[in-house]
Amino acid sequence: MLTIEHLVKHHGSRTVLDHVGFEARSGRVTAFLGPNGAGKSSTLRILLGLDRADEGRALVAGQSYRSLRDPLRTLGSMLDGSGAHRSRTARNHLSWVARSNGIPQRRVDHVLDQVGLTASARTRVGRYSLGMGQRLGLACALLGEPEVLVLDEPVNGLDPEGIRWIRGLLRAHADAGGTVLLSSHFMGEVADIADDLVIIAGGRVVADGTLDDVTRRYETLEDAFFALTSDGRDTVR
Ligand SMILES: Nc1ncnc2c1ncn2[C@@H]1O[C@H](COP(=O)(O)OP(=O)(O)OP(=O)(O)O)[C@@H](O)[C@H]1O
């Protein structure tokens, strides 16, 4: 469960988050959508303790990310691809992350298998395709068997088989009681996987509800997105 409460963030005289608040619930896949520059990454960075809010707070299972005792065992995240250095192999990288977080080494083989990278585990990350890098980022997020997954653009670079695979993986995580928050620009994928939607535009939440609630008045999710994020926009709360 993730709770975002009244986040305000200024950069100089600009307000990039203006009282952003929503929840991502256990057992649900929540999609976080918005045009470029809307404030998605700013919100996720605050949630993950990478930046500070000027007002408001973001809680993971009732605590701030920075106060979690074993963060990777509570929340797994992927913000910018794999996060691994080009010169390392997937196995090196995951082993190092596991060691530095008190996670058993047997989890490394498990997640490599889970994301389909076992055969490439000893290849340097610099030689990986975009999709393989995404799979490694996901392996890292899954390493600590966290309840919560926060994924920025997880289908970016995946081929159709990879997209189907990740959809199944995230669905299974939510169906097992986990919380999934993902950002995406791919409306088709979001419509296929999300239970709940949060749409942000200009630093404000303009829609928050179930996929059905948010899209009810529109033909498609894409129509809803443009109506809710354009100037003179609608709102659904
Ligand atoms: N460190 C910073 N200094 C100044 N402005 C910033 C900084 N970080 C973000 N911004 C601004 O805050 C606004 C929100 O940016 P953010 O990266 O959160 O958007 P986003 O919704 O993630 O966009 P995208 O879909 O392009 O990733 C943008 O106008 C951006 O230029």
TrEMBL record:
One of its GO terms (molecular function) is ATP binding. SUPFAM superfamilies: P-loop containing nucleoside triphosphate hydrolases (SSF52540). The keyword ATP-binding applies. InterPro entries: AAA+_ATPase (IPR003593), ABC_transporter-like_ATP-bd (IPR003439), P-loop_NTPase (IPR027417). Keywords: ATP-binding, Nucleotide-binding, Transport. Residues 2-227 form the ABC transporter domain. PROSITE patterns: ABC_TRANSPORTER_2. Pfam families: ABC_tran. Coiled coil: none annotated. PANTHER family: ABC TRANSPORTER, ATP-BINDING PROTEIN (PTHR43335). Belongs to the ABC transporter superfamily. This is ATP-binding cassette domain-containing protein. It comes from Oerskovia rustica. The lineage of its organism: Bacteria, Bacillati, Actinomycetota, Actinomycetes, Micrococcales.
